[in-house]
Design a protein that fits this description.
Helix content is 41%, strand content 18%. It has eight helices and seven strands. The protein has a seven-stranded antiparallel β-sheet. Strand 2 and strand 3 form a beta hairpin.
């Protein structure tokens, strides 16, 4: 079953009508101050290790890695051949465009601090939400769903190596009055990055599995000062 088909089945089993959804992760959480940790009852700050079955699966899947690498190399070779057919001026324009986009993207990232997992204020709504991230589930991924009422995050209660959709449970809900989803680049760049922005202005960054996922497309269709 295709990835989007699995997501539809999963959301159906949860009894949720989602406008869009995508699997996502958060970057490594920074170490909070001791006082913040104590006030939050010393929550878990990292996902669980891969279970033994997952390690076995990784070993069994190892023989297929060269095949995957071959097809990736083939795709890159085809792209290189197509670029070699361009004229010198076309190559220069293409290179200049990529460099301009990278500079602009890097400038936005630096200006907004998007190289961090959240805005840095552990006392803000995003920081407090992030402190509970792995207390809700030790799985390393979340299925992030946009609904008419707000945002829903679902995940297996514990880390699994296969069949993540079969073990899904709702682990967090955020109403539209609490937080919204934002593309920090307003669709200008095809990225995996989205922000969960809270009403107090704090935010946390999630990275979707897919480049410019359905969730990105949904976010960009919504009327917003950011998008």
């Amino acid at each position: 079953m295709a990835r989007r088909g699995k997501q539809r089945v999963a959301t159906g089993s949860l009894g949720i009508h989602a406008e869009a959804g995508a699997w996502c992760t958060v970057d490594k959480l920074p170490q909070p101050p001791a006082g913040v940790l104590q006030a939050a009852d010393n929550p878990r700050l990292s996902p669980a290790r891969m279970p033994p079955l997952g390690m076995v699966g990784a070993v069994l899947g190892a023989p297929f890695i060269p095949v995957i690498m071959f097809f990736e190399l083939l795709a890159r070779t085809e792209e290189a051949v197509m670029r070699s057919l361009d004229t010198r001026k076309e190559k220069e324009r293409s290179r200049a465009k990529r460099e301009d986009e990278k500079r602009h993207r890097d400038a936005v990232i630096a200006r907004q601090g998007l190289d961090q997992v959240f805005d840095g204020d552990w006392h803000g709504s995003a920081g407090q939400f992030l402190l509970r991230w792995y207390s809700h589930s030790t799985h390393h991924q979340r299925l992030l769903l946009a609904t008419q009422d707000g945002i829903v995050l679902a995940a297996p209660p514990k880390r699994v190596s296969v069949g993540r959709e079969k073990h899904l449970q709702v682990v967090a809900r955020l109403s539209a009055a609490e937080a919204t989803l934002v593309d920090p680049f307003s669709g200008e760049f095809g990225t995996r990055m989205l922000l969960i922005r809270f009403q107090d202005g704090s935010w946390l960054r999630v990275d979707t599995e897919e480049l410019r996922s359905d969730l990105h497309m949904y976010v960009l269709r919504q009327p917003s000062a950011d998008n």
